Amino acid sequence: MPELAEVEIVRRNLERWWIGRAAQEVIVADDDLIVPSSREAVITALSEPAYAAMRRGKHLWVELGPSRHALLFHLRMTGKITLEDTPQARFTRLAWLIPEVGWLCFKDSRRLGTLEHLAPGLITSSAPINKLGPEPDALDGPSLKLRFGRSARRVKELLLDQRVIAGVGNIAVSEVFWQLGLHPSVRPKQLDDDDYQRLSDALTSHFAQLLVSEQADELHYVNQGKAQNPFMVYLREGQPCPRCQAPLERMTFGGRSTYYCPRCQPARAPA
DNA sequence: TCGGTTGTTATTGT
DNA sequence: GACAATAACAACCG
Length: 271
What we know:
By secondary structure, this protein is an alpha+beta fold. The chain is built from six helices and ten strands.
């Protein structure tokens, strides 16, 4: 799935395309998208004008109508929401027509994304929104350290745990660790106060930069189509490190790859 | 055919 | 209880 920056880009697009308007027509192409709520509830909500597009972590929702329905989207691995001339685009699971704008299409080749309808007032108290940790830009070094607590888990696992910090994904870990010279298996005990501050700063600036460089009407995933890889180390196993030219390597934990430079990111002595 | 893929969750084992 | 690994969800790509 897209990470924080990509979801924020989709949110901004929805704001431009959808807010202030109601869908005129709805096509549910894949009922499995809508869980656990009913297809009827989603269609009813879509018939009312949208008035706000919100994001927390990788979750995106739109509030609609005087009765304040909420439609909560999760794009998971391959979801995107695009603006199309027709609702027939490949991989479209749900399409809704905004008059004088076009068809908004939830496209999702892997079909792991979800859409949930939430009754008025339930959104911020709903799981998992209320379980999410703070946004990266709301954390400084000391507060990040506090959130890690005395955990013995790898820093990587903690950053990917949405309850600890919201919005961080697997790509961000590779890129930020490379930037800071952190080994993929580093543990909280091996970080000093300075490391924590640099880590929280690097996460914030990583997402801020992506927000600018990836801004577009349609998200482009590195692994799909001909989009070229804009990252320094992610998916670049075997290629020279941009900093020292040593061949980049890959290490996986729990089936999640971290790409890193063995020279720039040496293992640290146990603290 | 195999191994890889930007997410999350349930399950099993240590 | 904490942690770690794995599969599962489902499908595409090289």
